[in-house]
Design a protein that fits this description.
Layout: H1 3-34, H2 41-59, H3 65-87, H4 97-119, E1 136-138, E2 141-143, H5 145-167, H6 169-179, H7 181-186, H8 191-213, H9 223-238, H10 243-263, H11 268-282
Antiparallel strand pairs: 1-2
Length: 294
Amino acid sequence: MEFTFFFSQFMSGLTYGMMLFLVASGFSLIFGVMNILNFAHATLWLIGAYLCFTFWSLMQSYDIALWLSIPLAAVTTGAIGWICEVVLIKRLYKRELHEQLLITYAMALIFGDLIKITWGPTDKLIVRPPIIQKPVHLFGAPIDSYFIFVIFIGFAVAVGLWWFLKFTKYGHIVKAAVFSREMVNALGIPIPRIYTWVFTLGIFIAGLAGGIQSAIGSITLGMDMSTIIQAFCVVVIGGFGSLTGTLVGSLIVGEVFSFAILYWPDGAMVLIFAITAAILVIRPWGLFGTPLRA
């Protein structure tokens, strides 16, 4: 395998991994803090993609349309997440895991139908601005310039979440709520409010991922179902609630898929499922998770 070809595939896998991280990080954060397994997470990601297309359609005559549409989609999706938490999710905190899955799966189906009603069954496509239509050459390999943007945003979000959880007052409160809700309550900090903002943050990141995804390829109905399965594989491999684990799991899945699709197109996902199953058998709490949170 020539180095330029190998490097090109590596960058594709890194891009795919960063996209998965943006989806899975919010999914893992919500579960890690709130113990809510939100099956509708990727459907909200898809809503972010469609919202980005809508904003872009309204501003497409301007070169900055995409760059404005992505944050607008993220904020709007985050607002939808806030409404979902206040209206429904807050009622699931004390429910069993299977009940959470059933109810959030129903949410995914409802949102899926609303997407079809609002945007129709046809695929949507965003035309990128001229500045990112030409490839960038790195080590002799042509790399999609938008991929560089995706990788940068993915790592920026990872660093931002790490900094927030490690160095800010609110990040410390969030981590404390994971290990001792009673202590946080005793300090006069309302747990429900923490949960609301954590859920909103997780969905905001999903909306950001959806907005970014909308310019990678066509936006298609049903793509959320395959995405939530891959996000689930990522957090199982890395460990539920672990930011580092989510990042590493995303990179593993992204690179494995990128290279496996070349040699075993029909079995790329089978290989990812096999890795996920092996992790579950050998280390059920994931590579960076802890047994107490398994």
